[in-house]
Amino acid sequence: MKSIDIQKLDALSGLRISENETFSFRCHSDLACFNQCCRNLNLYLYPYDVIRLKNNLRITSDLFLERYVDIVMRPGNYFPSVLLKMSDNTERTCPYLTAKGCSVYPDRPDSCRTFPMEQGLLTSHENQKTKKLIHFFRPPDFCLGRFEDQQFTPKEWAVDQDAVEYNQMTAEWALVKELFRNDPWGNEGPDGKKGKMAFMSVYNMDEFRNFIFHSSFMKRYKVKAKLAKQLQKDDVHLMKFGFTWVRFFLFGIPSKQIQIR
Ligand code: SF4
Ligand code: SF4
């Protein structure tokens, strides 16, 4: 999910679908295109995607990031994008694709759930606080699901694909990511200490937990006991705390959750 400036809205491709509009779609294994969409993708992974996938695969976030992602800094961006690394074969298939379909289906990423819809957070240049979720219907030409009869509004589609929680987590991340419209790194650049800290705090939960509980963090900052307990065992609480920490240490946005001792 990306932030879209209202002034650039008309330049975007795909059919914009409003909250109450419907689109026709159904995906199933009898279609000739079955599995064709799971290859050669620029598949963005958001922080919650990484938690779900590394837990599905029962590996650490460190190992997941090392094995399965490409981390790229897009021109004009100040926070890296995390993309799922496609397999090294001629078709560049998704590493989780099998003949029977997706092997991580219950924990597939947000973009796979929302597909063929794409979502954006519409912001107005004049009033940055005004945000609206917008939806585009963008099936690729080979996708036959769009000729099926079943009708969905964007909300019904999210429910059908069990994407509501994912969409919410991604929207929370999009609000943090938006802060990176301007360069926060100064002379040290995004590969410096602050850049590494920010990336770890949102994408590498096992390392972040280690940092919180096995560095001087707890000596320097007060975190309520109940929250500390949640951070110890729950990756989602930890990820949201990571969002708060990035706002706090990098952008100076205060939070009741983190008090200097
Ligand atoms: S191409 Fe479209 S209809 Fe075919 S498997 Fe992929 S999402 Fe489903
Ligand atoms: S994660 Fe699953 S649904 Fe998504 S591209 Fe890979 S195989 Fe397809």
Descriptors:
single chain; 261 residues; alpha+beta; 2 domains; two-stranded antiparallel sheet; 16% strand; binds iron/sulfur cluster
In short:
By secondary structure, the protein is α+β, with helices and mostly antiparallel strands.
Strand content: 15-25%
Q: What pattern of helices and strands is seen along the backbone?
A: EEEHHEEEEHEEEHHHHHEHHE
Number of individual domains:
2
Bound molecules: iron/sulfur cluster
The count of DSSP E runs of length 2 or more, i.e. the number of strands, is 12
SS-derived structural category = alpha+beta
Strand order of the largest sheet: 1-8-9-2
How many DSSP H or I helices? 10
Share of residues in helices: 25-40%
Distance between the termini: 36 Å
The largest pleated sheet is described as: 4 strands, mixed
Topology, pairings included?
Blueprint: E1 2-5, E2 15-17, E3 23-24, H1 47-57, H2 61-68, E4 69-72, E5 81-84, E6 97-98, E7 101-102, H3 110-114, E8 117-123, E9 131-137, E10 151-152, H4 154-160, H5 164-177, H6 193-203, H7 205-214, H8 217-220, E11 221-222, H9 225-233, H10 235-251, E12 259-260
Parallel strand pairs: 1-8
Antiparallel strand pairs: 2-9, 3-10, 4-5, 6-7, 8-9, 11-12
Helix pairs in contact: 1-2, 6-10, 7-10, 9-10
The structure holds iron/sulfur cluster (2 copies).
